[in-house]
Amino acid sequence: MALAEFELIREHFQRAGTRADVVLGVGDDCALLTVPAGMQLAVSLDLLVSGVHFLPDVAPEALGWKALAVNLSDLAAMGAEPAWVTLGLTLPAADAGWLAAFCRGFYALAAEHGVELVGGDTTRGPLAIAVQVHGFVAPGAALTRAGARPGDLICVSGTPGFAALGLARCLGRTELPEPLAATALERLERPQPRVALGRALRGLATACIDVSDGLAQDLGHILEASGVGASVEVERVPRPPLADADAALQAALAGGDDYELCFTLPPGRLPGLAAAAAAGGCACSVIGRIEAAPGLRLRRADGSLLPLARGGYEHFG
């Protein structure tokens, strides 16, 4: 059943408030929000376009989850505490069933992280989703890409590469055995933003980024921002348990869409990594070291350099 625009807003987006810092939420020309005293506001926006960021036939409930997850991942990379979100939807039609499912996924993840929807917009057109998240972090406590120093260890959370395998399977480019196929699809469609890990890394990590376009490429952003280089020991990079070891490694290094965290820390802080991983509910692996010489070197166990079959994702590459 199709809905008129304001019916759509009332039915799906006007909800009882859950946060005391929301003075006025959905339903007026602007939201009125109170930033806690002594905190900085961290803001990020991602635009997801059908056929570019997600497959056109993806389940709407999974899409609602992922649309918020990829934005919460940006807050996680900064060590910020999520608070508010705005949502812009361009829809081919105001399909009530599709919207109800989308909102189930969106609100389920929002509830997990104490996030309240405070505004947005809807319009007709090709399916696209714009989500802007807002979070809090104390002055000087935010993690950035620019703090890595020579000698720092390079770490990554979780197991990158699953999402790339899930996409390849959906596109008919690979066959995966069960339960690997189910795990890969879950990681692709319902990534887990590492918000708790990001908070635990404040004061521990020197630089951090979320892995959205491929581990090697996103680590390269840390190197560029910090003015350093790095060596990664490819045998230490966690990867999916795929029979084709080379394909698994390439997926882990260049696949993207994992939304894990890649971060650096001085060796003297390594004892704190186990506690941070426990707080974040995920494994963290040391995969290399920051060096003064510029560039990223992917080293095999015998010391030879590994070439990547392809780089990470680029929209205009």
Automatic annotation (TrEMBL):
Pathways per UniProt: Cofactor biosynthesis; thiamine diphosphate biosynthesis; thiamine diphosphate from thiamine phosphate: step 1/1
Keywords: ATP-binding, Kinase, Magnesium, Metal-binding, Nucleotide-binding, Thiamine biosynthesis, Transferase
Residues that coordinate or bind Mg(2+) 3: D29, D74, D210
Keyword Hydrolase: no
Reactions listed under catalytic activity: thiamine phosphate + ATP = thiamine diphosphate + ADP
Described function: Catalyzes the ATP-dependent phosphorylation of thiamine-monophosphate (TMP) to form thiamine-pyrophosphate (TPP), the active form of vitamin B1.
Protein name (record): Thiamine-monophosphate kinase
Phylogenetic placement of the source organism: Bacteria, Pseudomonadati, Pseudomonadota, Gammaproteobacteria, Candidatus Competibacteraceae
